[in-house]
Here is the input.
Amino acid sequence: MAEQVTGGAAVIEALVAQGVRDVFGIPGTHNLELYRYLPQSGIRHVVTRHEQGAGYAADGYARVSGRPGVLITTSGPGITNAITALATSYADSVPTVAISPGVPRGKVGADYGWLHEVKNQQSALDAVCGRSVRVESADEIPDVIADIFEHLATSRPRPVHLEVPVDVLEGDWVRRPCPPASFARPARSDPSAVQAVAAAIAAAQRPLVLVGGGARGASAQIRALAELAIPVLTTVNGKGILDETHPAALGAGARLAAAHQAANDADVLIIVGSEVGDSDLWGGVITPGRPGERTVIRIDLDPAQMHKNVRADLPIIGDATRVLSEVLEALNGKAIGQWSPERAAGHRNAMATESAADAGPWVDIQRSLAAALPPDTVVAGDSSQVTYYGTVHYWPFTSANRLLYPTGYATLGYGLPAAIGAKVADPDRAVIALVGDGAAMFSIQELITATELRLALPVIIVDNGGYGEIREQMLDRGIAPQAVDLYRPDIPALARAIGAHGVQASTAGQLGSLAAQALRADRPTVIYHRV
Here is the structure.
């Protein structure tokens, strides 16, 4: 006879069927049935101190592991606290799954004073996620969760919210096997489109590849193009897809006019896995070029990307790894244009000269850390100057998925919880958080989570006296700075009060050795440095 359990078992057992190993979240009145079944499931639950932290941790977990990051909240304030984190995952195309209870069936929009009631919780989440799905029975749950995981693996990965009415979560479910997601083998691209792309590349005199986060899985194929002496420029989300020490690597251009010029000089521009948006270019413009002057090739899993911001002459919809493999196969044996390796060096030198003009204190910080830490260290940054002026430009990365940074949504408070998620995903790998003082205070409570987990996590807080970027923008507009110069607490003492280690670096040069020591510590270490 089939065993009768509650809808909470359907959720947890469906997650187990999808291979979920870890979840982040906080228990609450309406999600307790999930916690009834978690202990025997084999899934590790990491409790954070705020649901936003759980969302950021799930995001960092997904970026490092390549598996969806899962967060569990209660209804109302629990899930709405996580909205900013989910919007961050949406902006950067990160596969996260948020699971929360919702109002009982038949009560959506009833406004009857139910605890945690939201006018329409599902609609609120649907507005910031790739989609929000509400089930109406426990029997739906296993198939819906399998569909969510299949969609994340085969389409542009964006966060998904699953809402389970509290009466379904707490109601009866007759246990049945939960199906794993099924993945159909992707079809090959249109051969004529592949041949057209290969022909355009072969005939080019000044080709350039612009690589975004959607190409993180295609490092080998991007390197193969670089070996043909095609310069490779990455967005911030694409940083490290090509080893930045490679002769053809231009690095992560983002804000640099010289990087935009390199793209605009190309006669064949190959855009892979990027929307080429404002957060990629920092106000720069990739010009379409007049007919006959430039051919734009776009390769993307998302059909909606093909003509966004820069119109494609030759679009190919598909996974970057598969499509580029087909293009390289078609290029084999073709006579190609005379591509000069010196062209990449020229662009790289122009970018370095421009970047050095406003290096500020950030370059010494990055060099100290890069010299002392393992070459595959994961750096969880924030929307802080030390990240976007520093790590992006002055820390050469040799592989993808090493920089965790909220590029598109540009939120504060991401770095510390994202580092926790990354360390949970890959405990044996070196992970650091490197954030500004303003950003740190948005999520400093998650240091308690790291301490509970006994993570050997260096948390480097670079204090520039508050919201430095906003201060500079006020001055640029002739506005007297206000609300940007923040009180400076004793951050190392705060860390020690939480139970972590807390130390101070008097010079940027000390940061590397202190961070290396912290990787061997028995708990997280906050390393404070004032600039």
